[in-house]
UniProtKB/TrEMBL annotation:
Residues 599-698 form the G-protein coupled receptors family 3 profile domain. Pfam families: 7tm_3, ANF_receptor, NCD3G. It is found in: Cell membrane. This is G-protein coupled receptors family 3 profile domain-containing protein. The keyword Transmembrane applies. The keyword Kinase does not apply. It comes from Ilyodon furcidens. The chain crosses the membrane at residues 598-622, 637-658, 670-693. Keywords: Cell membrane, G-protein coupled receptor, Glycoprotein, Membrane, Receptor, Signal, Transducer, Transmembrane, Transmembrane helix. It is a multi-pass membrane protein. The lineage of its organism: Eukaryota, Metazoa, Chordata, Craniata, Vertebrata.
Length: 698
């Protein structure tokens, strides 16, 4: 007997072993000498889907219906139990999977899409745990038949495509298993940018945008409001770690500093989650960016609610900011973040509320949900202290995330995922003949054919386009949402803008609504490591701290800074002085000798008087120019000396009054020339006298 075992993650999938039973002998090398069909038998008990329906083609579904993985300490003396989920049912995820069922039922009724074809489904619970997701992946590969025969091998594909999983980490595990079998995985939840790598995940598609676009949008959002000092928390998963890494890179490019970056996960011990909460409480950063899933964020906010921190402005990723359950945490009022675009799906609300009592009793998951929602028991021999569900419960009056249909976001991603698969199947098995569509449901459809057609789908449903790029990603479009308190005191999710990555730079980010901030304030909160340095000072970085932490030092004398947070000071232009605050330059004051001042009047009198004396002397000399004493005194030099003295006296008048360009040039040159001329005359007369006294011949 030959044996093939598919083993994964420490025995979690050992129930999926396949045994090949042949009725003919094998050669010593193990090679059959006859060509007879191979009979394959599933060893162990297969997983039972939470919801299922037979059809011509079956679509798989993987959702985190429960919150936790049931953990068991093994003693290695008994066979390990199959991994299973525990905890309460997540009503929001229950709405998601019912959206998948609604879409399939809608397609089955359609006369245009897959006419004459009935789609089936098998939906499993993964509780966002990798061991369970791997187990489910192998179960979807093998199908439900305990014994099957397919030619000469044991390759049995139970489904042709799968919708899920509810998180990036389990989706990565499932995708790596499916890639060997060419089974397409279309996720409405997994946003990790790593899943865009087609070398690692060739069969992965998604209808929700990649986190790379979300991280860029969050960084631009923080920069838009002027926050430079933030805290960061994330899920300790592929979604949180990869998403936060992309955000931190984008924040660094925008000049944003991060005080702390903490990771946590829902299954962490309480003291670890408390440590993260204490970091938030003690931090100085007012703004906290949380890149986490709603399931993880629930545990952190519950811990913070026990001792609410100082006012904090939360910035949320799409993984949790749109979860209606988290809106009950009042200290998060004013939260702003990116969310998947709202949608309108005709008929979905009626389908969700159409739950009959018999339908609930027939499903263990719906029974759990019903008993939790209405606080009663469907078991007849229930505890006498517990109320019995008698069928009078009205789900239409129930207030629960399951019945909340005013904010349908992820539901549209699930809806589009199912329709994308349906269009791929339609293109693979249907063709147009004589104006009508003919679909061959007898044709053996392989997942590889659906995979090839998925790459080419391009359609619109309810005005929402559906297509995939070469990486299996859709066009990135987010709504900006704000947690605002209504008049009734209930926090509501309000759309205040959008982020469209397909637009050009500068046009991607738009805010067109009034925002409410932390504690209902209407003023944008300030979150900075250091207060802004006013004009007149410069920044000096604090040693050992990020660039956003600095001290403000006043500019040195003679220098200014005229902008806020200036890194340097600079000198004023030549004809300017800095003011006393050292934040502006003003023209140097023009100081001059006015004719109206006493000193000016004295200078004018002396100048004019001196000139008059020189002119009077010149006149006397001219009148007696023929006399011997004048002639002996060298009359030419005397007249020139008196003329230069007159000009020297008059040159002082150019220094009176407001200076101008011409007066400034004239006053110095004129005085220099006349003064040199005067001195030259004096020296000339001195040389003449000296020569006269030294002459030997008269």
């Amino acid at each position: 007997m030959g044996l093939i075992s598919l083993v994964g993650l420490g025995g979690y999938v050992n129930s999926l072993k396949l045994t090949l039973e042949r009725t003919y002998p094998l050669t010593p090398a193990g090679i059959s000498t006859e060509s007879t069909p191979v009979q394959c038998t599933l060893q162990g008990s297969p997983l039972v889907p939470a919801f299922s329906k037979n059809g011509d083609f079956v679509i798989g579904g993987v959702f985190s219906i429960h919150f936790k993985l049931y953990t068991v300490i093994y003693n290695y003396t008994t066979k390990p139990e199959p991994s299973r989920c525990t905890g309460s049912v997540n009503p929001r995820v229950l709405r998601f999977l019912h959206t998948m069922i609604f879409a399939i039922e809608e397609i089955n009724k359609s006369t245009e899409l897959l006419p004459g074809i009935n789609l089936g489904y098998q939906i499993y619970d993964s509780c966002v745990a990798v061991p369970v997701s791997v187990h489910v992946a192998f179960q979807l590969l093998n199908g439900q038949d305990p014994v099957f025969s397919k030619g000469d091998n044991c390759s049995q594909s139970g489904v042709i495509a799968v919708v899920g999983d509810s998180g990036s980490t389990p989706s990565i595990s499932i995708s790596r298993i499916f890639r060997s079998f060419n089974i397409p995985l279309v996720s409405p939840f997994a946003t990790c940018a790593c899943l865009s790598d087609k070398q690692q995940h060739p069969t992965f598609f998604r209808t929700i945008p990649s986190d790379q676009y979300q991280a860029d949008g969050l960084a631009k959002l923080v920069k838009h409001f002027g926050w430079t000092w933030i805290g960061a928390v994330r899920s300790d998963s592929d979604y949180g770690n990869y998403g936060m890494a992309s955000f931190l890179d984008a924040a660094l490019r925008e000049g944003i500093c991060v005080e702390y970056s903490e990771a946590f996960y829902r299954t962490d011990p309480p003291y670890k989650i408390k440590r993260v909460a204490d970091v938030i409480r003690r931090s100085t950063a007012v703004v906290v960016v949380a890149f986490a899933s709603s399931g993880d964020m629930k545990f952190l906010l519950e811990e913070l609610a026990q001792d609410p921190p100082p006012p904090r402005q939360w910035i949320g990723s799409e993984g949790w900011v749109g979860d209606p359950y988290l809106l009950s945490f009042s200290f998060c009022e004013g939260t702003i973040g990116v969310a998947i675009q709202q949608s309108v799906t005709p008929g979905l609300k009626e389908f969700l509320l159409d739950l009959s009592h018999s339908e609930v009793v027939a499903s263990s998951v719906l029974t759990e949900f019903w008993e939790d929602a209405f606080n009663c028991s469907l078991t007849k021999n229930a505890d006498l202290t517990e109320k019995f569900c008698d069928g009078t419960e009205d789900i239409k009056k129930l207030r629960s995330p399951y019945t909340e249909t005013s904010q349908l976001r992820i539901n549209n991603m699930v809806y589009k995922s199912v329709y994308a698969i349906a269009h791929a199947i339609h293109n693979a098995v249907c063709e147009e003949k004589n104006g009508s569509t003919h679909c061959d449901k007898q044709n053996i459809l392989r997942p590889k054919e659906v995979l090839a057609e998925l790459k080419k789908v391009n359609f619109s449903k309810n005005a929402y386009p559906v297509s995939f790029d070469v990486n299996g990603d859709p066009i990135a479009f987010y709504e900006l949402v704000n947690w605002q308190k209504s008049k009734s005191g209930v926090i509501e999710l309000v759309t205040v803008g959008y982020y469209d990555a397909s637009m050009s730079v500068g046009q991607q980010f738009r805010i067109n609504g009034n925002l409410t901030w932390v504690e209902g304030d209407t003023q944008v909160p300030i979150s900075a490591c250091s207060e802004s340095c006013p004009a007149g000072t410069r920044k000096v970085l604090q040693k050992g701290k990020p660039i956003c932490c600095y001290d403000c030092i006043q500019c040195p004398e003679g220098e200014i800074s005229n902008i806020t947070d200036s890194p340097d000071c600079f000198s004023c232009p030549e004809e300017f002085w800095p003011n006393s605050q050292r934040n502006a330059c003003f023209p140097k004051p023009v100081e001059f000798l006015s004719i109206n001042e006493v000193l000016g009047i004295i200078l004018v009198v002396c100048s004019v008087g001196g000139a008059c004396l020189a002119l009077t002397s010149a006149a006397v000399f001219f009148h007696h120019r023929t006399t011997p004493i004048v002639r002996a005194n060298n009359s030419e030099l005397s007249f020139l000396l008196l003329f230069s003295l007159t000009l020297c006296f008059l040159c002082s008048l150019t220094f009176i009054g407001a200076p101008s360009e011409w007066s400034c040039m004239l006053r110095h040159t004129a005085f220099g020339i006349t003064f040199v001329l005067c001195i030259s005359c004096v020296l000339g007369k001195t040389i003449v006298v000296l020569m006269a006294f030294k002459a030997t011949i008269p």
